[in-house]
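Journal club side-thread
Mid-discussion, someone asked how the predicted structure for our own chain would compare to the paper's figures. Pasting it here so we can look after the session.
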Amino acid sequence: MVIRREHALALLRVREEEKNEAPTCQLFLKSEEPPYLELERMNLLRLVRPLEYSLTYWGRVLANIIDEMVEKGLIPHPSKWDENFRWLGSEVLMMIETAIENNDIPGYLTEGELEKRGFIEERKVEKKGTFKAINRYAKDVYEVFKNAHPRLIIDKELAQYIKDMPAGPAESSQLPAGGRFPILMGAMRLLAFSVPTSDVYALTALGREIKAACETMAPVYETVISEDILDSLERAVYEGFDAVTEEEKELLMAEALIDQDGNPLPAGEHLLEAYRIWKERSFKPVKTINIEIIDAELLRGIEEVWKHHESDPSVLPTVDELVHYLFYKPVKEYKHLLEHYGRRLYQDLGYQKKEEIRKKFSEVKTVEELFKSFYEKGNEWYQKMYDIVQESLYTLESFNLIRAEEKEGKKVHYLTEFGRKVLKDMETRGFREIPSVAVKAITITNKEFASPNVDWYRKGVETYLIGGGEATEAGKMYATMAYEIERLPHITRFELQVLHKLPEKGAFVRDVYDWFDETWKEEVTYALNKLEARGYIDILQNEAIVVTEVGKLIKKALAGTPEGFANPITPLAVRVLKALREVGTLYVKEKKVRVLPKNFKEAMKLSGLDPETFEKELVILRASNLIGKSSINEAGLLILEALEKLN
């Protein structure tokens, strides 16, 4: 949906003809038609006869909104707009959508752009003062967007343009010259631009399926894709070849959409998915994943220890063995780990020691020496390193990259299929952090009409997830993984502090930085990355933070957890919870699952954990007030509900 000066004037012209009791608006020149044709694709105008148009219901609504906003002085008359001014477009609609999701507050990133378009008002709330929010016209426009179902008609020329263009995310300067094609694609919601300005573009989910079809079909006729063609294809495939006429069969086969038996060819499969998206307006939720340097390093460590196990069966990838694996790595060979270790040391020893810690890094030869230099008494250095490794292993399991299992009475770690894929990527493209927003720069395009903001896009480029005008093989792999992994709840002490501070709506990224001392900025960034990747918060394109339904459940369940607890909920503890629920009896009125003492052994078997780990996780569950002596309480049931919602 795109409204520029010419589109607004066209709407008002057709509405004026309607007021004069003319049944349609008659155009006199073919050169006048492009904006009218684009409005027809937006389902705001109806083509009655060649060069004759009338308003649809939603076109009339939008024309009335423009009139009313002009009368109230919120915007100048469209005749006074700059020719290329986009009053509405994917970027503006996403600015409105993100404000609606954030209690009508647009925030610092988008407020100015919305104000230019007449969509901002001042509100006064007792005890909170005056603030800026979107007005009812913004919501009315958004209502038009949600209800005006776009048309889908693509001719040969547009099909070739779509075939030739990079799919994105990419900088808008990479779009090939194509006259009005980008506007026409925006009209049909195939192409979206970034918030707040259109610096980055991406094909939408619908646009990607159309592009894939254009790349594999045979464009024989002038109209390559239309709603009629899509309908014929659907009937031919799902109702049988006899459900379509001979003429329809001929067309579908000529365009290489089906074979002679009525089976869909690659182009047909893509168009069937495009038709489903277009018809049902069904879109994937936006998901992401986050991997820190130490997480990636431990994936390599697990694999190397298993290789060592082949020659020495006594060596297994336990937590202790993985701690030793990291200890004996020369610091100079693993500079990418310095940032992580340094950040953890700052957190524990105080940020005032930053310079001292940095100096130590340049002096020591191994990670072991570094930790010993700060934690000499009572082997505390080993325990601290153990805690860091265990926390990372929890994170890896929470993202289904590893699985902890009992072997020879010990807790050992195995790479999952997903973990092996991540390790292969790291070995191929370099060990690096994968920020959640870098993956989200790709998955955000699964929404109906959205593109990543510039910061997300740049993070994607920096981490080799985006390049050459589209998602790279690595980017596609992480984006797919974000949807396929089976997640287990996990949260660290600091992440829980951040989550507890967040209201359900109304906060922005920079607000969170303001709530903590400046020296904690790096830690806050990592916490936000993890909280979003875990599915507890959603960071919108305008940098607003919305706590998800899962996040609300986690907050409520852990409201009574002692602050000093390092990992208030772990994926292994959740496995124990699941097992206890399976062997227990639910008491609905009491909101409890009671577990007989004799059933704890069965629960241990179901959890797949060794006795020592099972007992440790029971301690964590009790300390976090999720279970009692022999029952799962209401808080524990909330965690299990969060688990179901995550997957």
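Post-session note: Residues 109 and 542 are 6 Å apart (CA to CA).
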